[in-house]
């Protein structure tokens, strides 16, 4: 069964088509998530496969994490709950059983939100804002992995106030991803460190970035045997690098330009930051979102673009796929890439749901 029923989506599209006609806020006529955050969206995650229903959580610079239930047929959303942190929220992660959400932020802590009781408890502490949090499920342990601007990567058994392990980083943690048995962390000054999580977490190798500018996002991909083998990394310079951890051929690694203006403005091309990268859970193709207010779908194996959206009113800051790959969620809000003078407080923040399964099918081999 598809996550969006055909009839439900058709009805929603026509409704949004009418409302979007007078507004540029929803040029793709996608389904709008109700009661969006009051400030920029910093993180976005769908519930894991263990959960029967579909839930979406989003963290924001308004200090809150919100949770919505997504209707299986119509795609319409219903606000379910909300929790507040002691500062702007920087990342969220689901436990694999879907009972808890971990929230990290600028108050230097990570809190565990138990969805059944709607209570939170602090489970991790750093000396600076916690930029990333990820759930790790290994055969012999489960924990959360946290990366901070205090230049440490820590692993926590959430039942203990002290970390299981603390690893010094060469610089502040900017972005990270986990797909067992692999973790990858990118730091300030374009550092990339790959960790293996089997037995116990340990550094596997450091890799030199093929991108010349600051990294913004990183996402692990799998090979045809469904094994995590590499990652895509995006930079502020409108470029993505596809990097294998152990490439069979050095030419397997490559970079491509994205989120740039088609034409030139007085001889210059406008270049925008790549704010997030996600791989489709079924097809293995990928989505990028950027400061140009567009999302794009790509086939990395065919090295081709599959689709680019119309431009939104503001930047797209984050995106996510649900676990069946039917829904693509993306958040439209200001990302401060143009500085304070371009911030417009009257502009609303949006989260949209886009039916995407067919659009992300790989390009047929010729």
TrEMBL record:
Swiss-Prot/TrEMBL keywords: Cell cycle, Cell division, Cytoplasm, Mitosis, Nucleus, Repeat, Transport, WD repeat
Top-rank lineage group of the source organism: Eukaryota
Repeat among keywords: yes
Localization: Cytoplasm; Nucleus
GO biological process: cell division
WD repeat copies, ranges: 34-78, 82-123, 123-166
Residues in the signal sequence: none
GO terms under cellular component: cytoplasm; nuclear envelope
Keyword Cell division: yes
Family: Belongs to the WD repeat rae1 family.
Protein name: mRNA export factor
Origin species: Amphibalanus amphitrite
């Amino acid at each position: 069964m598809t996550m969006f029923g055909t009839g439900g989506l058709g009805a929603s599209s026509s409704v949004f088509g009418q409302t979007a006609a007078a507004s540029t806020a929803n040029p793709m006529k996608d389904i709008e998530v109700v009661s969006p955050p009051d400030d920029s969206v910093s993180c976005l995650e769908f519930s894991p496969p263990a959960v029967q229903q579909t839930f979406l959580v989003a963290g924001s610079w308004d200090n809150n994490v919100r949770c919505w239930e997504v209707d299986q047929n119509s795609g319409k959303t219903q606000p379910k709950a909300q929790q507040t942190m002691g500062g702007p929220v920087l990342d969220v992660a689901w436990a694999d059983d879907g009972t808890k959400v971990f929230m990290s932020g600028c108050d230097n802590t990570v809190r565990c939100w138990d969805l059944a009781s709607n209570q939170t408890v602090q489970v991790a502490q750093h000396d600076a804002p916690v930029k990333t949090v990820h759930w790790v499920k290994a055969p012999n342990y489960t924990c959360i992995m946290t990366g901070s601007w205090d230049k440490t990567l820590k692993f926590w058994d959430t039942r203990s106030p002290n970390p299981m392990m603390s690893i010094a980083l060469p610089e502040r943690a900017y972005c990270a991803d986990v797909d067992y048995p692999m973790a990858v962390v990118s730091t300030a000054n374009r550092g990339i460190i790959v960790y293996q999580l089997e037995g116990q977490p340990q550094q596997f190798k450091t890799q030199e970035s093929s991108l010349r500018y600051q990294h913004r996002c990183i996402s692990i991909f799998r090979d045809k045997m469904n094994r995590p083998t590499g990652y895509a990394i995006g930079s502020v310079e409108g470029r993505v690098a596809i990097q294998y951890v152990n490439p069979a051929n050095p030419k397997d690694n490559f970079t491509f330009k994205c989120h740039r203006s088609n034409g030139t403005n007085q001889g210059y091309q406008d270049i925008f930051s790549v704010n997030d990268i996600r791989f489709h859970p079924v097809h293995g193709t990928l989505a990028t979102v950027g400061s140009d207010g567009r999302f794009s779908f790509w086939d990395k194996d065919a090295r081709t673009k599959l689709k680019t959206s119309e431009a939104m009113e503001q930047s797209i800051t984050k995106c996510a796929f649900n676990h069946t790959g039917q829904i693509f969620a993306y958040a439209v809000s200001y990302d401060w890439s143009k500085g304070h003078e371009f911030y417009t407080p009257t502009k609303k923040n949006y989260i949209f749901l886009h039916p995407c399964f067919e659009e992300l099918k790989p390009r047929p081999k010729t």
